[in-house]
Amino acid sequence: MKLIEDIIRFLETRLEEFLRAHPEIELQALDEQLRQQEEDTRRLLQESRAQKQALSEALAKLGEEIKTWHFRIEKAEQANRPDLAEGARRREAELLQQGSRLFNQGKSLEEKIRQLEALLPQIAQRRQEVQTKLQEVKAAQAKTAAERVSPWEKLFEEDKLEEEFRRLEMRLAVDKELDDMKKKVGEQKRR
To answer: What is the mean pLDDT of residues 152-163?
Structure first.
């Protein structure tokens, strides 16, 4: 068990070091998490709205049923049927309790919908911040990479410089030889 814990701790440390050395990967992972969270929040919001709509429809239907039983209480009392009136009152009371539960569920759903609606812009803003930071990191890395010359490029540049100096030295030597030849030809003509 200790060996596994040590391996896990070692891997976590290596991962943290790697992420510190490559912040763009950490930012990409964070962006992906935020994208998933935004997607999940939108899905939850849609589901909650659908539940709220279904609950509203169920409440409306229950309200009609309560009215029906209320009228039945009145009919039973007018017909002098206390037994039916009492049964109708119990049924109406059960429906009212059910309505109260549904109403409370609706209030909870409304609060959940408000919270999800408030959460969405916060997630979007955080995601935008992460994407902006990611662009900054990538731009800084590109600038650093452009400034940094690889050893091969450095060797190539040194070779180019060496070659330029060889050409210059060769041209200077040729120019000197030409001057020397001109002097000799000039001396020979004078003789």
So the answer is: 67
